[in-house]
Design goal:
Elements: H1 11-22, H2 27-33, H3 38-52, E1 57-60, E2 63-67, H4 69-95, E3 101-107, H5 109-114, H6 116-126, E4 130-136, H7 139-147, E5 153-158, E6 167-174, E7 176-181, H8 195-198, E8 202-206, H9 215-222, E9 228-233, H10 236-244, E10 249-253, E11 265-269, E12 277-283, H11 291-300, H12 306-314, H13 332-335
Parallel strand pairs: 3-4, 3-5, 8-9, 8-10
Antiparallel strand pairs: 1-2, 5-12, 6-12, 7-10, 7-11
Helix pairs in contact: 1-2, 1-3, 1-4, 6-11, 11-12
Length: 338
């Protein structure tokens, strides 16, 4: 009896397979993501299919059209297997006190530009060989990147329940402010701004404001009002530009105010009108923390250190902490800016 030798399944093949799925079955995008050629990726998928004995994708002409039912079951096992392999590499690097590596952060444009720079600069001084990769996007995009294993951590905000994730650490709370031209009539009200004042003007805010479930929409609905969302953008600088050009009243995060320069704009508080937001740091429990990631998390949490962070996460415990407000002295992000 002769047993035909077949090439063994490899982690690389499984990584290519999940990359294709995450790229929406677009081989060109998947190849770029894994730094491979399209022909090389296709060859490895063919070898994997030969090893498994069934097709992973249905095909139409030269394009992939869908996952096969069997492939969907393979995907369920491939993702945790790749995560475990990544943990083994991380463990090895930690044990060898490896100072090289990569840190992938999925977050919003506001956090990336106005919150993280000081923290990442300090981490870079401690780990100069670490390559840091920021993937700014919407909250939903950041959560999806974390779920797919494309990010080591995600930093997003919410004004209600905590976002869905294995580990959720509140970093700080913050408010929104309204920005208007310096000579705007809303600056001469002689009283606090009200939603009834804002409802008469087009608003320029973040992309999430268009969603019916957004806290901005909910605040107006609770008052029996409907806001006029004239334009949305992901960056406060763009919102300020549109306000300067007369497109409406801007609603931005208070963290972004330091980057909006000039005496041509006035800032009006809205913390009495709109709910307080919380910025969260999110992690997957199946991902082993590299030393530099644990150090970064410890920087973000008042009174914490890397050992406390690691023990709490690995033991599925809680991190005792008081959540500071953005303007509080206890906010580590703000304290290091002064």
């Amino acid at each position: 009896m002769h047993i035909q030798d077949r090439a063994a399944m490899t982690l690389t093949q499984l990584r290519y397979f999940t990359a294709i799925v995450d790229a929406g079955l677009n081989i060109t995008l998947a190849a770029k993501k894994v730094h491979a050629t399209q022909s090389g990726l296709s060859k490895q998928i063919k070898l994997l299919e030969d090893e498994l004995g069934f097709l992973l994708f249905t095909r139409r002409a030269r394009s992939l059209s869908a996952l096969t039912p069997a492939a969907a079951r393979v995907l369920e096992h491939a993702r945790p297997l790749l995560a475990h392999a990544g943990n083994i590499r991380a463990l090895s690097e930690n044990l060898r006190r490896e100072t090289e590596g990569e840190l992938h952060i999925a977050t919003t444009h506001t956090q990336a530009r106005h919150v993280l720079p000081v923290m990442l600069a300090r981490l870079k001084r401690s780990y100069p060989k670490i390559a840091m990769h920021l993937a700014p996007g919407g909250d939903g995009e950041s959560l999806a990147r974390l779920a797919r294993g494309e990010a080591d951590l995600a930093i997003v905000s919410s004004s209600g329940a905590a976002p869905a994730a294995d580990i959720r650490l509140p970093l700080f709370q913050w408010e929104r402010v309204a920005i208007v031209p310096a000579r705007h009539r809303l600056t001469r009200l002689g009283r606090p701004l009200q939603l009834e004042d804002l409802v008469h003007y087009p608003l320029v805010s973040y992309e999430s404001s268009r969603e019916r479930g957004s806290s901005l929409q909910r605040a107006f609905e609770a008052a029996g009002l409907e806001p006029q969302i004239a334009m949305t953008a992901r960056d406060a600088d763009l919102i300020a530009t549109y306000v300067r050009n007369g497109l409406g009243i801007g609603i931005v995060a208070e963290m972004a105010m330091e980057a909006i320069e000039g005496d041509d704009l006035a800032v009006l508080p809205t913390d009495h009108l709109l709910p307080t937001c919380t910025t969260w740091l999110l992690l997957r429990r199946d991902r082993l923390l590299r030393d530099h990631t644990a150090d970064l998390i410890a920087q973000m949490l008042p009174g914490a250190d890397a050992r406390t962070v690691r023990r709490a996460i690995e033991a599925e415990g809680e991190l005792p902490q008081a959540v500071p407000h953005w303007r509080d002295q206890g906010n580590p992000f703000l304290a290091r800016r002064r």
